[in-house]
């Protein structure tokens, strides 16, 4: 046996994004954009514009499919046991945080964990973790429903983008993540409201979706609807998550990084001929 | 079956190899016991058998390891799954699924076995390990012994020819440990499985071993051979072997039964000598204080008519504690014994206010833990929980100590000073999670002692400790009870606070299954069963006569009242 | 007849069958605003749940979902009363003082007179949503989520394992968190408030991460990921299929949005893309040569349950297409809604699983679902019963 020690190939990212999975991610995200944003994108005469009440059924089926494809592509060619275990344990933590937090709407500190984990383990891991947290917690609590695909995509994006934030360190990094966590809290809330807004029929015209109206018009209506209904909740969510990042960000980041180091994904294992004295 | 050929292992960031030039073989159907202190490389040795070292952990392995003819250089752990089964220390950390049957089937599913084979093997394994009653239960609801048997069953279903177990009983109580070891015995004898086992509590297993591998640590050469021969000179040895050394039996007996046969002359010699002094008396003589009975002084803790129940008023669950009375005086070391679920932890938790009594009262010093603020309770009584790591959350030992000083409003540096006395030489920049079990326990102890509580409570402190760490813990407990180990020497400060503690002598209450520790340090034993106090008295009378709680030396010398090797040595020395 | 086909022999029905049944029922509910039909749907779902649920923790989902549905109805009505513009009626019940709004918020009115018609419209609309929620809740209550997970395609095997791990660990983490919070009190600190978050979160997270490594070692030693690398050609084919499929879905979806695109870029493209992508998943999933221990059979009862759900959906869709009276009830003028015969009879078909599905196995002391509370809180340690974890919180109050 000759020496074959490949040194310094330790990586902290269990799901490195390869061209194939990146392509799948981009395409799936495009579908996701339509899944949320179709009220602003449809032509009045288009197929979807004509059957806008059927749109959610379409996406409830389509979104899990595309998320599944991305996850399959991310784990294509087999997935390290360490990565699976890490994903499972972090998803359990996220699900437990969801279960522990009082009032599901505003206080969800899951985002905080997701942002930090995405930052440490990378964009692909963040995407997978976001999707799996929702899935696992829905299964644990018996809360599987039509909203689940939308939550999965929303949270997966939050984790994905956390993984592509610019480099920074120390205090600067924590502020970056805190601001991101705050922004993501609003964005997540706004996205999820968007998924049911078009069918909220008992809204006044100024807040309601008007099929066929120009996109800018509907955007205005939606903004008013969002401010009127869920802005307050999301403020609480944003404040909680931002505070958590500032307060507990350092030790949690350190813990995650330590775990990544100790797990040493793809640790270099070497063999040598016996050392004869 | 297993062959190590000049194996050395060096981890990537380690300066020196942890194993150096290891060569030995384990024949088919043998039970091989791996002995060594924490950190000596035992786990590395075990993990090298199925290739987890270095495939999983990283690092460099030189030489080669052959298992059933397969070379770990070319076979990854997963490729050896049908030959080697590995069981870890904490069974809960190894379960993938959550019910017994699914867990048993998991490994076979990964190997792609056909469904009918899987079904047969699951049924066989359930019977073999006595798990058929709990087959559909969630694993989390099982007892520790059942969980460990599930963990063994889960690797057995792939029909491995080698079973590797890393301290499978160290987290279990004696009864559960017996269950697990009996199951292992059966595997070796009936099925011819080769078993490699690492274990701290040698007294439990050494009598079954065919071969012992002693890992001395520090890269020194391994000693491999017959159990009795290896242990005769080993640094780690069970009490029966230590007694044999004292009595000059060679080769040393490994079981109580063999030792009793040889012990006739020793018993005759001891029968003529005065009875041993219990630790109580030792404490008194060494500290030079007048011997005071508990009733004569103000108790540190007083429990009256305590009832603890869980799950609210409407449950049919029996109370965890019923109508319990207990008084503990300074200088006492009380061992709480009893089965799992007997109420030991409930009593400790009630003493620090983590559990509110349903009836009756608890008083610790001048504080009522049920209503006092956490800060006040922490100054009256300190509890080190079963998982000492729960207390620790800083990123380094030094920071942990500083945080403890702030938490308890102590002068800076007090916690670090205490730690330096309990366990010298722990680097301040080490991460608490990277410490050994014993060091972590000392750190948690130091944190709790920073508040200078006159009453110290320990919940299962010896779980996972090796002989060295246990001996160190025994010294610490004795010193605390004596008053001379009182933390950092600032006893004046405590007297100034005027909380009625004389001379800085702590009272210690510890819940444990470890009879050897009880025999070593306790002055009094309280036995709980089903929430009732069933026995309370000096160690020799409670423990010495009990068939389950008696330490090895007592079993060998019965009906004589000696409990530990050191007592026997003292008696023989003074005679 | 094989045992699996008999509807009388107790066993767990395939979770997929329950979901198909529930989705059928939910589709039906979404096609009507007739409160009588909606209540009928809820009653049918409730009856089947009561007849065929187990004692597992998730079996309580139906009641939880119905409660959420009631909240939805309430919110809708309150919204209607405050913004009250969508429906104008003549029967004024009461008047909320109007809040003057600035010019740029035109189209929004707050306050004004609240009519019975408006509230009724909100009620019908909310009820429809509540009925859909009830059907989803029924599926959650009847289908075992772990069994559902086992039906994931092979290409998602790793992720499925991660989810299983997450579901196993989540309850343990809740116990860990309670322990860490108790430890906080042992250090003389209050165990509530934002300040304690760090001291609780860090030990729990560190412990969890440590366990993940131990678990990974255990999985690796037990053959996880052993089977499996596809030949490069198959991997290429999988990738091509999946990516082309995704592209097809993308084009299809945008085709649906755009009125100017030829019709072929709409639904046909979408269907073709989904098919290709699905095929890719199947081909990619073949790399895992795993087998399944005691898989759920799909036998006669599964077919009957699934078909009964689809039948309801079909009845409603057909009725809507035929313009059957009474499927939608106008809120104006105020009238008592009629019960249309065909959809009502169709709804009753969904009641059949109460007899056609095999009863769940009776849970004895040893069955997996017998001790839900203990699993949730976990009490692996010495004598600390499950409820123990809640005590510290009580004390600190």
Question: Can you put this structure into words, describing what you see?
Answer:
The complex is a heterotrimer of chains A (about 280), B (about 575) and C (about 400). Chain A is mostly helical. Chain A has one domain: Arp2/3 complex 21 kDa subunit ARPC3, CATH 1.10.1760. Chain A is built from 10 helices and 1 strand. Mean pLDDT of chain A is about 80; it is low at about 1-10. Chain A is globular and about 80 Å long. Chain B is of the alpha/beta class and about 575 residues long. Chain B has 3 domains: about 1-235, 3-Layer(aba) Sandwich (Rossmann fold); about 240-275 and about 540-575, no CATH class; about 280-535, 3-Layer(aba) Sandwich (Rossmann fold). Chain B is about 35% helix and about 20% strand. In chain B, the strands form 4 sheets. Chain B has a 6-stranded mixed β-sheet with strand order 6-7-8-3-9-10, sandwiched between helices. In chain B, helix 15 runs parallel beside helix 17 (about 435-450). The longest helix of chain B has 18 residues, at about 175-190. Chain B is globular, with a radius of gyration of 25 Å. The model of chain B is unreliable at about 280-295 and about 485-505 (pLDDT under 50). Chain C is mainly α. Chain C folds into 2 domains: about 5-150 and about 300-380, no CATH class; about 230-285. Chain C has a two-stranded antiparallel ribbon with strand order 1-2. In chain C, helix 8 runs antiparallel to helix 9 (about 265-285). Chains in contact: A-B, A-C, B-C. Chains B and C meet through strand 6, helix 3, helix 4, helix 5 and helix 13 of B and helix 6, helix 7 and helix 14 of C.
């Amino acid at each position: 046996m000759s020496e074959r020690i490949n040194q310094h190939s330790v990586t902290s990212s269990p799901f490195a994004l390869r061209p194939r999975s990146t392509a799948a991610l981009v395409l799936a995200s495009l579908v996701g954009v339509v899944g949320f944003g179709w009220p602003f994108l449809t032509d009045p005469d288009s197929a979807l514009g004509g059957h806008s009440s059927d749109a959610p059924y379409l996406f409830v089926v389509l979104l899990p499919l595309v998320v599944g494809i991305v996850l399959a592509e991310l784990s294509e060619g087999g997935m390290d046991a360490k990565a699976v275990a890490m994903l499972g344990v972090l998803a359990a933590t996220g699900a437990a945080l969801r279960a522990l937090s009082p009032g599901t709407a505003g206080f969800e500190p899951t985002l905080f964990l997701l942002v930090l984990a995405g930052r440490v383990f990378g964009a692909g891991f963040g995407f997978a973790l976001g999707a799996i947290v929702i899935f696992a917690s829905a299964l644990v609590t018996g809360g599987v429903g039509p909203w689940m695909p939308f939550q999965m995509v929303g949270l997966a994006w939050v984790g994905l983008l956390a993984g592509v934030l610019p480099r920074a360190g120390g205090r600067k990094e924590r502020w970056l993540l805190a601001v991101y966590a705050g922004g993501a809290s609003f964005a997540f809330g706004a996205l999820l409201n968007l998924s049911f807004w078009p069918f909220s029929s008992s809204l006044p015209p100024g807040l309601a979706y008007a099929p066929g109206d120009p996109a800018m018009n509907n955007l205005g209506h939606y903004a008013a609807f969002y401010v009127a209904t869920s802005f307050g909740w999301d403020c609480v969510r944003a404040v909680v998550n931002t505070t958590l990042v500032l307060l507990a960000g350092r030790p949690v980041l350190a813990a995650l990084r330590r775990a990544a180091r100790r797990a040493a994904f793809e640790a270099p294992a070497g063999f040598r001929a016996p050392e004869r004295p | 079956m297993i062959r190590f050929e000049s194996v050395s292992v060096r981890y990537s960031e380690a300066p020196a190899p942890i194993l150096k030039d290891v060569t030995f073989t384990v024949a088919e159907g043998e039970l091989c016991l791996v002995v060594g202190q924490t950190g000596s490389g035992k786990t590395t040795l075990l993990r090298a058998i199925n290739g987890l070292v270095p495939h999983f952990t990283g690092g460099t392995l030189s030489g080669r390891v052959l298992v059933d003819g397969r070379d770990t250089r070319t076979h990854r752990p997963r490729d050896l799954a049908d030959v080697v089964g590995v069981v870890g220390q904490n069974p809960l950390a190894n379960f993938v699924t959550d019910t017994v049957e699914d867990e048993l089937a998991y490994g076979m599913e990964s190997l792609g076995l056909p469904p009918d084979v899987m079904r047969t093997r699951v049924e066989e394994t359930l019977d073999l390990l006595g798990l058929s009653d709990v087959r559909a239960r969630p694993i989390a609801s099982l007892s520790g012994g059942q969980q460990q048997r599930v963990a063994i069953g889960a690797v057995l279903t792939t029909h491995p020819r080698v079973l590797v177990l890393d301290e499978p009983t160290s987290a279990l109580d004696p009864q559960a440990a017996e269950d697990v070891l009996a199951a292992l015995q059966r595997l070796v004898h009936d099925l011819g499985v080769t078993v490699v086992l690492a274990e701290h509590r040698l007294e439990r297993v050494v009598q079954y071993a065919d071969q012992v591998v002693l890992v001395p640590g520090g890269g020194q050469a391994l000693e491999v051979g017959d159990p009795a021969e290896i242990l005769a000179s080993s640094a780690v040895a069970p009490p029966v072997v230590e007694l044999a050394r004292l009595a000059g039996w060679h080769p040393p007996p490994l079981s109580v039964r063999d030792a009793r046969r040889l012990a006739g002359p020793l018993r005759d010699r001891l029968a003529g000598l005065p009875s041993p002094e219990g630790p109580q008396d030792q404490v008194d003589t060494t500290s030079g204080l007048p011997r005071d009975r508990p009733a004569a002084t103000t108790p540190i803790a007083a429990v009256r008519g305590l009832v603890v129940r869980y799950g609210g008023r409407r449950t049919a669950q029996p109370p965890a504690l019923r109508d319990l009375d207990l008084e503990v005086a300074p200088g006492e070391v009380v061992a709480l014994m009893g089965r799992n679920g007997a109420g030991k932890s409930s009593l400790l938790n009630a003493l620090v206010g983590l559990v509110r009594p349903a009836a009756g009262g608890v008083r610790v010093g001048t504080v009522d833990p049920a209503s006092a603020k956490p800060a006040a309770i922490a100054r009256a009584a300190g509890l080190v929980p079963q998982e000492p790591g729960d207390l620790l959350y800083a990123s380094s030992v030094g920071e942990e100590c500083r945080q403890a000083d702030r938490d308890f409003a102590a002068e800076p540096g007090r916690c670090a000073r205490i730690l330096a006395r309990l366990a010298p030489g722990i680097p301040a920049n080490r991460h608490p999670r990277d410490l050994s079990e014993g060091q972590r326990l000392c750190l948690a102890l130091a944190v709790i002692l920073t508040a200078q509580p006159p009453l110290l409570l320990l919940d299962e402190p010896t779980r996972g400790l090796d002989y060295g760490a246990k001996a160190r813990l025994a010294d610490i407990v004795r010193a605390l009870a004596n008053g001379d180990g009182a933390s950092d020497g600032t006893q004046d400060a405590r007297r100034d606070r005027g909380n009625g503690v004389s001379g800085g002598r702590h009272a210690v209450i510890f819940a444990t299954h470890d009879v050897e520790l009880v025999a070593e340090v306790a002055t009094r034993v309280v036995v709980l069963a089903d929430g009732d106090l069933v026995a309370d008295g000096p160690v020799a009378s409670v423990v010495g006569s009990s068939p389950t709680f008696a330490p090895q030396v007592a079993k060998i010398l019965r009906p004589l009242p000696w409990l530990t090797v050191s007592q026997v040595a003292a008696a023989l020395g003074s005679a | 007849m094989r045992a699996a086909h008999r509807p009388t022999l107790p066993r767990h029905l395939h979770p997929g069958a329950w979901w198909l049944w529930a989705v059928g029922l939910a589709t039906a509910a979404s096609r009507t605003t007739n409160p009588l039909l909606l209540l009928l749907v809820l009653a049918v779902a409730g009856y089947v749940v009561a007849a065929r649920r187990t004692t597992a923790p998730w079996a309580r989902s139906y009641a939880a979902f119905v409660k959420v549905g009631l909240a939805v109805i309430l919110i809708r009505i309150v919204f209607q009363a405050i913004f009250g513009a969508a429906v104008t009626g003549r029967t004024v019940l009461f008047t909320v003082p109007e809040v003057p709004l600035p010019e740029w918020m035109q189209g929004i009115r707050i306050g004004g007179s609240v009519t019975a018609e408006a509230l009724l419209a909100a009620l019908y609309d909310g009820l429809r949503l509540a009925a859909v929620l009830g059907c989803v809740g029924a599926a959650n209550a009847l289908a075992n989520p772990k069994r559902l997970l086992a039906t994931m395609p092979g290409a998602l095997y790793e992720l499925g394992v991660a989810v299983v791990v997450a579901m196993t660990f989540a309850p343990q983490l809740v116990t860990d968190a309670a322990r860490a919070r108790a430890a906080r009190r042992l250090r003389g600190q209050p165990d509530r408030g934002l300040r304690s978050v760090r001291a609780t979160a860090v030990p729990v997270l560190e412990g969890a991460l440590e366990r993940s490594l131990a678990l990974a070692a255990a999985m690796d030693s037990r053959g996880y990921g052993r089977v499996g690398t596809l030949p490069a050609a198959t991997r290429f084919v999988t990738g091509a299929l999946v990516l082309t499929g995704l592209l097809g879905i993308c084009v299809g979806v945008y085709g649906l949005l755009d009125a100017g695109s030829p019709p072929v870029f709409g639904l046909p493209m979408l269907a073709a893309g989904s098919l290709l992508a699905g095929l890719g998943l199947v081909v990619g999933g073949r790399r895992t040569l795993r087998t399944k221990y005691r898989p759920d059979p799909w036998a006669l009862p599964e077919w009957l349950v699934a078909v009964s759900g689809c039948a309801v959906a079909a009845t409603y869709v057909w009725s809507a297409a035929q313009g059957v009276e009474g499927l939608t009830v106008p809120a104006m003028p105020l009238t008592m809604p009629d019960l249309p015969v065909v959809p009502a009879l169709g709804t009753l078909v969904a009641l059949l699983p109460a007899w056609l599905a095999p009863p769940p196995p009776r849970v004895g002391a040893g069955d997996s679902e017998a001790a839900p509370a203990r699993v949730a809180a976990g009490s692996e340690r010495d004598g600390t019963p499950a409820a123990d974890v809640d005590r510290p919180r009580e004390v600190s109050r």
